[in-house]
Amino acid sequence: MKILLCRLIVIIFYGLFLYGCTKTNLVSQAAAKAVSEENISQAQSINKVFTNVVYGKNTDWLGQIQDLDLDVYLPVPKVTDTKYPLILFIHGGGFLDGDKASSQSDCELLSSKGFVVAAINYREGWSLLSRNTTDQASATYRAIQDGHAAIRFLVTSAKKYGIDTGFIFTEGSSSGAITALNLAYLNQDSADFYFHNASLSLGKLKNAGNGLKANYKIKGVASMWGSLVSPYIITKKNGLPTIFFHGELDQVIPWNIGHFYGYDEFPLSYGSKALYERLTLLEIPSVAHIDPTGGHGVYDRNFRQDNIACFFNAIINKTPQTGIYYTEVPNCQ
User: Fold this and answer.
1) 107 to 8, 60, 181, 213, 309: CA distances (angstroms)
2) Predicted TM-score of the model (pTM)
């Protein structure tokens, strides 16, 4: 009897042991599956982005040759036969510093809304402390050259990235917005006048950085607290639908008319209000979101990118939007 009882206890213990092992294995398998699915998800996310793609090279402000690279965000996990409009995204940093990586969240938001988005690095650097206007102008000019080089590269690589070259838009924040606006509005004649020394020393706007040839036309601009050297480089002929975001208390780039960084040594700079009024005078559909209590950087990322995507889609659909807003009201109803 005692022997049978001992055998029964052993059988029960062994059964519980096997159950525990089986349960542990099932948990391990479930964990492994979760990790595998996470890896797949990460891989799909990674596959949506081509990183550190070199689009050209040029000499930086210190005389060193610099590789110019960009990241391309796709609206789908992989390239398909479908073509998508392109947004060239240019980060800020006062033409002093910054990196395309800072634009990742903006680019992901825009790509999720059906755009191919290319975030670029460009040549940076100048002597801010010396308040050298020639230095500052050259830094701006180099960024514009690099922006055109990036667009040429993307147009010639349109098939690889699924780009509809009929719809190219530029977008940027701060110095990136200055660059985005100039890519759309600054031609060589204006560059030779307003950036005379830079054009003499650095060459033409559209043949630097790479030897690629491409015809393209920008269809719209998004400027987040940017400016131009003059509103009069915008004409009836070259005017484009443009959406602006700016704070009235901006001490870096004036929301209306003022000096870059508030330094009188620099030429006058024309911000969002002045440019919006110029476009409105020329009957070019445009939108301005002005925050009366905001400084250098207004409204949250989702609000900005939702409205920018809607504004660009309205251009594509030939129903451009117009209006100026002093409260956080969407231009897309």
Assistant:
1) 66, 26, 18, 26, 11
2) 0.85
